[in-house]
Design brief:
five-stranded mixed β-sheet; globular; 510 residues; binds zinc ion; alpha+beta
Length: 510
């Protein structure tokens, strides 16, 4: 996500055009001719052979602002224990009560310009085969006790979940405004079971409080004929159902969520980069083309620097979304009021970088938000540096370093970067520590080891953790191994402001 606006106009230079031409001519390698199914095929096969499959049929009714859906979830128990229950998140229920909405209090009127409007999800039934299962609803969690003696390690279960979603008049990730429906975090999605057991966290008002595993989706959406849908995955077929409705059939590769936006006013522009189809869904003519250009340029840059984006397409969708930008697999939402403004490039590039750091390499965004945000922010800076040269490089000082130093000057008590979302006071310390200091971790490493080694190790990080979830610990170990401890744990402790245990004790005793 991007939450911060600033003026980037001064970094634009006439050199841009020459640079793009130069990259276009020299940057084409045989590597990019390979089809996406061949890329990372070893990792793909391993995960795809055991991942969860979601098959969702959704009937979208924009007039009632509702969706009626049936979802089949095929889950294989890859944990090392028998599971007696499964947990799903029901994120729409975070939008149910006025006093519990997932927005900071001071942003309430921006999220609900027409006043509060409830959004929620209702479960009609859950079945395993013909057997209807009991379930428990608790706030945003759905607990499904499993039949017989639970699900043994390595065994599979298929659940059918029927549900109804009510979409609120809200300009957040889940809601509708004047032009778009933002249908994100909208269906029952499995929580992650890891070494800590089931991860059940609240829908915090700051950060992107999500943590999920790569899965394969097949989604069918029935929508009124005049609506255009931008979505995760590949829209393999769009056909008429009758005189009033269309049926959209969508299939995905390994992705960690499925999101979509819908509008009856969308215009579409598209282009192709390295065999990847890039789409811009927009309302503002100039801005729509600019967003497409930024998406194409950044996909091209990250393809060459970190490793290729392995999907068929990528979409940038203008949305009634007040928070700037938000990343989902193959799809990002951008506040439509930013189109035509100088902040658009930065925000599109940032969300595009998330396709690598969040999309391909996931992480627990509740416990370690810095890991994807810091790397995404630094990847954005690298794009600007590559595109604008010296002026782009200046962005590192102006955007990243100064943000953190300004925070330092405010004399904060807590400098820790690596902490859970609920341990931040608000957007201010979150922004300075997670985005700015997080980006500085990577900036300092690159300065220390040089661009070549940085590229080698970060490409390795992608290859090693693609389609999986990585942790800060994984990143530290990788850097220690790949640089023979030139970049070691002490370096990360210093950059992440991790206090040694003894110091911590002294402070708490004081
Ligand atoms: Zn972000």
């Amino acid at each position: 996500m991007v939450i911060r606006a600033f003026n980037f106009r001064k970094y634009k230079a006439p050199l841009i055009v020459l640079l793009i031409i130069a990259i276009s001519i020299t940057g084409y390698f045989a590597f990019f001719k390979r089809s996406s199914t061949q890329l990372y095929s070893k990792q793909y096969k391993k995960i795809a052979g055991q991942c969860t499959h979601y098959d969702i049929y959704a009937d979208f009714n924009p007039e009632n602002k509702s969706i009626n859906a049936v979802q089949t979830v095929r889950y294989k128990n890859n944990t090392n224990t028998t599971l007696n229950e499964l947990y799903f998140y029901l994120y729409p229920n975070a939008f149910k009560n006025e006093d519990m909405t997932p927005f900071p209090g001071e942003e309430f009127s921006r999220a609900y310009p027409n006043g509060f409007d409830p959004g929620y999800i209702e479960i009609n039934y859950i079945k395993a085969g013909e057997e209807e299962l009991d379930f428990k609803l608790n706030d945003i969690y759905l607990q499904v006790p499993l039949p017989s003696k639970g699900l043994k390690q390595g065994r599979e279960i298929s659940l059918e979940i029927s549900f109804k979603v009510q979409i609120p008049n809200c300009l957040g990730r889940f809601g509708y405004g004047e032009k778009t429906f933002n249908i994100c975090n909208w269906y029952p999605i499995l929580a992650v079971y890891d070494e800590n057991g089931w991860n059940l966290d609240p829908y915090y008002a700051i950060g992107d409080p999500f943590y999920s595993e790569s899965s394969i989706y097949q989604v069918t959406i029935e929508a009124p004929k005049d609506f255009i849908i931008a979505s995760t995955g590949e829209q393999v077929e769009v056909k008429d159902k009758d005189d009033t409705k269309k049926i959209w059939t969508i299939e995905t590769g390994l992705v960690r969520d499925f999101a979509w936006t819908a509008s009856s006013d969308y215009k579409i522009a598209s282009t192709t980069v390295d065999g990847i189809k890039i789409y811009s869904y927009y309302f503002h003519e100039g801005g729509g083309k600019d967003a497409l250009k930024s998406a194409a340029e950044s996909i091209r840059f990250y393809n060459r620097y970190f490793g290729k984006y392995p999907y068929e397409n990528y979409s940038v969708a203008a949305a009634d979304f007040y928070i700037g930008g938000m990343e989902y697999p193959n799809l990002v939402l951008i506040d439509r009021t930013l189109y035509g403004g100088s902040f658009l490039e930065y925000i599109v590039v940032h969300e595009t970088a998330h396709q690598w750091w969040y999309g391909l390499v996931g992480s627990n965004q509740v416990k370690e938000a810095w890991l994807d945000e810091g790397l995404t922010e630094y990847s954005t800076i690298m794009f600007l540096e590559n595109k604008y040269g010296k002026q782009g490089k200046q962005a590192y000082d102006d955007i990243v370093k100064s943000r953190y130093h300004f925070f330092e000057l405010s004399n904060p008590l807590d400098f820790r970067v690596l902490r859970a979302l609920n341990e931040f006071e608000g957007w201010k310390d979150y922004d300075a520590l997670v985005y700015a200091r997080g980006a500085m971790v990577f900036g300092e490493i690159r300065e220390e080891v040089g661009d070549k080694t940085f590229q080698k190790v970060m490409s390795r990080y992608l290859e090693e953790y693609i389609y999986r979830n990585a942790t800060t610990e994984d990143l530290i170990r990788l850097w220690e191994k790949e640089t023979n401890n030139t970049i070691d744990r002490c370096f990360f402790n210093k950059m992440l402001n991790i206090m040694p245990d003894d110091e911590k004790e002294n402070i708490s005793a004081a």
